[in-house]
Fold this protein.
Amino acid sequence: MGADPPFADIRLPAGGPAGQPAGVAAASVAQVSVTRRYERIAAAYDLLNGPMERAGTLARRRRIVGRAVGDTLEVGAGTGRNLALYRPDVRLTATDVAPAMLERARRRAAGAPVPVRLERADVQRLPYPNGSFDTVLATCVFCSVPDPVAGLRELRRVVRPDGRVLLLEHVRPRNAILGRVADVLSLATSRLLGPHLNRRTEDNVRAAGLRIVEVCAEGIWREIVAGP
Ligand SMILES: C[S@@+](CC[C@H](N)C(=O)[O-])C[C@H]1O[C@@H](n2cnc3c(N)ncnc32)[C@H](O)[C@@H]1O
C-alpha cells in the first residue's frame, strides 16, 4: 500500500471475455457493455463532467466524502474525483470495474491525502469478506450499475455492523412530468454514456436491506447515509 502505487499495483483479476473481472462476464452481458462504455469515455469523463461539478456536485462530494472514517471502500471510483477529499486518517481502498477509469484514478492517487489501494472490482460481486469496512462510499455509481439492488446488497454485506454506507446519487425526479422526461432521456444516456437518469435509488437502498439513517434531498440529488 502506498500513496502513489505504480500501475502494476492495480490488481486486475484474470479477465473473462471483454476484460471483465473473472466470473462476471457470463453472469452479466449488460455489465460488459457498461464497462465498455466507460472504457470508451474515460479520457473525456472529467471534461464532460466539469460543468456539473462546478454547478454543485463538487460541494456535494465534499460533504459526503468528508463523512468517511476508518477502513473505507469506495466503489465505482471512476477517475478518482473523490480521492483528494478524504480525511487524512482514512485508509482507502478504491475500486472500479473499468481499467481505463482506474488508470486515471491512479494518477490522482499520487496527490491524495490518504494512502490509496486501487483494485478492479465489480460492485455486484465484491471480492471482500463480510463486514470488512467501517465506511463504504459511492458517488454517481448506482445510475450505471445494471443491477443496482445487487450492488447495494454487496455494500451491506461488506460494511461492518456499526459502519456506514454513504451515497451521492442523482435519482428520477419526483414530479410526474419530469419523471417521464427522465425516463425518455435515460434511453439515450444509458446507451451513449452509461448513466440512467431515472433510478429510484432510495427504494433500491431499502430493497437491498439497508436502513436509511439520513437523506439530504436537493432537486434530483440525494446524499444518503445508511446502515446495514
Ligand atoms: C458516472 S461514473 C462515476 C465515477 C465516480 N464515482 C465519480 O463520482 O466521478 C460511474 C462509474 O461506475 C463504474 N461502474 C459501472 N458499473 C460498475 C460495477 N458493476 N462495479 C463497479 N463500478 C462500476 C464505471 O466504470 C464508472 O467509473
